[in-house]
Design brief:
The protein is α/β, with parallel strands linked by helices. Helix content is 38%, strand content 18%. Helix 4 links the parallel strand 4 and strand 5. The longest helix has 20 residues.
Length: 292
């Protein structure tokens, strides 16, 4: 049977996963907020529709017909997942033939654990509104799976980095990196390509209802990563800025609201996944090498 992937939201990670599946011969469709972006992605071999969350799609049955796999990555709002709000019941009607569904969430749902290790069974006590919206959306996807049989998997992503400018190497190169020091502040990270690899591993070994932490092997203080990036580039390490003295946006302050070490044992053991970039060191080294 041919495989057909629908990506609800074609952001940084979903787009790369879509490319991987397309290159394997899958049919891939997706949604995006703008007609301009839709046209660009259609040129890459994807069937695209514009969905901005403000109103329902005209031909939702046509979009869902024949879909075997769904990946959802649209950011939630105060009501949870925008696609489920408008088309949750439509998705439920088409759930029967589907083999896999994935929802991209965040490790921010765990909130602050004062640097302690957390696994997928840890309580979700988000310390930011953004984390709270993710908890709400996770619950909506899990409820949909329970009532419709849609084989839902939740992926809680740590801090994402990778090529195309989304990394500390570029931040240091451009002079935008700030080495803000907050004692006992640990952050998990994961390279975009490992996110794609873990999603593919789950597709190959589905386990509906399962939740997975998607983080590399070494949660670290963010200032260490910035310092390492500077060493790789052979430039001066950005000066240390005490957290109390840093001028931060609300989003940036939320980044510092929770400290935890995220355990990835489940993806390594259950999905038999070996990280391409097991720590930020290998990931940053590859980014520097690719730019040479």
């Amino acid at each position: 049977m041919s495989k057909s992937l629908l990506c609800l939201g074609m952001g940084y990670c979903a787009r790369e996963f879509a490319r991987r599946m397309r290159d394997l011969g899958w049919t891939v469709a997706g949604t995006t907020r703008s007609a301009e972006k839709a046209k660009q992605l259609e040129g890459q071999g994807f069937r695209m529709v514009v969905f901005d969350g403000e109103g329902p799609l005209v031909d939702i049955d046509g979009l869902l017909a024949g879909v075997t796999h769904v990946l959802a990555s649209i950011p939630p709002d105060d009501d949870g997942d925008p696609f489920l709000k408008l088309h949750g019941e439509d998705l439920a009607r088409h759930a029967g033939p589907m083999d896999w569904a994935g929802y991209l969430s965040t490790t921010g749902v765990y909130g602050d654990h004062a640097g302690a290790w957390v696994d997928e069974d840890a309580p979700t006590v988000p310390s930011t509104d953004r984390g709270g919206r993710r908890v709400l959306a996770e619950g909506q996807w899990q409820a949909l799976g329970a009532r419709s049989g849609l084989p839902v998997h939740i992926f809680r992503l740590a801090g994402i980095y990778g090529p195309d400018g989304r990394n500390q190497i570029e931040a240091v190169r451009q002079g935008k990196a700030r080495r803000i020091i907050k004692p006992n502040h640990f952050v998990g990270r994961v390279h975009r390509d490992d996110i794609v690899g873990i999603l593919a591993a789950s597709v190959a070994k589905p386990n509906p209802g399962r939740v997975y932490n998607v983080a590399d092997n070494e949660p670290s203080p963010p200032e260490e990563v910035i310092a390492y990036a500077a060493r790789l580039l052979g430039v001066e390490t950005p000066p240390a800025i005490p957290f109390e003295e840093a001028e931060l946006s609300a989003v940036a302050r939320g980044f510092f609201a929770g400290s935890k070490r995220v355990c990835n044992a489940r993806v390594r053991e259950e999905l038999d996944y070996s990280f391409k970039y097991p720590t930020y060191r290998e990931g940053l080294q590859a980014l520097v090498a690719a730019a040479q």
